[in-house]
Amino acid sequence: MLIKNAVLVNEGRRIEADVLIRGERIERIAPQIAAPSNVEVIDAKGLLLLPGLIDDQVHFREPGLTAKGDLASESAAAVAGGITSFMDMPNVNPQTITRAALAAKYELARGRAFANYAFYMGTTNDNLAELEALQKGEACAIKIFMGASTGNMLVDNPETLDKIFARAPVMIVTHCEDTPMIKLAEDAAREKYGEDVPFAEHPHIRSAAVCYKSTELAVGLAKKHGTRLHVLHLTSASELPFFAPGPAATKQISVEACVHHLYFDESRYADLGSWLKCNPAVKSAADRSALVAAVRDGVIDIIATDHAPHTRAEKAQSYFKAPSGLPLVQHSLLALLDLEARGELSLETIVQRACHAPAQRFGVRERGFLREGYFADLVLVDPTAGTLVTPESLRYKCGWSPFEGHRFKARVEATWVNGALAYRNGELTPQAYGQRLAFA
Ligand code: DOR
Question: CA-CA distance, 418 to 379, in Å (whole number)?
Answer without folding.
Answer: 12
